[in-house]
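Thread amino acids onto this structure.
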């Protein structure tokens, strides 16, 4: 059974930093493309950052230059380093794993709350 467990969320002041982690189990992590999404109250879930199996990264325009996604295949873990946080970054952050096996399959974590407030 695939499990994605996020951690590292919390309350931080504007301008601060947080690092989110997502530990995967029940799946061959190195075969998955990984991503972080977020959903703020009253808004649709949106892609924040993604990293492919080959290590290619993409970012939402709103976080470019502030957030960094990385992965450690030996630890089955993907990270999201968030710097220069803004109140508009407040949301529940979700880890996503996607792999291809006779079609695309998506797996989701339970989410971790990030609140940016003074």
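Threaded sequence (118 positions):
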């Amino acid at each position: 059974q695939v499990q994605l467990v996020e951690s590292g969320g919390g309350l931080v002041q504007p301008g601060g930093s947080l690092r989110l982690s997502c530990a995967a189990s029940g799946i061959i992590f190195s075969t998955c493309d990984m991503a972080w999404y977020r959903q703020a109250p009253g808004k649709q879930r949106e892609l924040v950052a993604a990293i492919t199996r080959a290590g290619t990264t993409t970012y939402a325009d709103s976080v470019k230059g502030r957030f960094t996604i990385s992965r450690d295949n030996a630890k089955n873990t993907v990270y999201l380093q968030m710097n220069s946080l803004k109140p508009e970054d407040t949301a529940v952050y979700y880890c996503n794993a996607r792999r291809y096996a006779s079609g695309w399959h998506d797996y989701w974590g339970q989410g971790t709350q990030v609140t940016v407030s003074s």
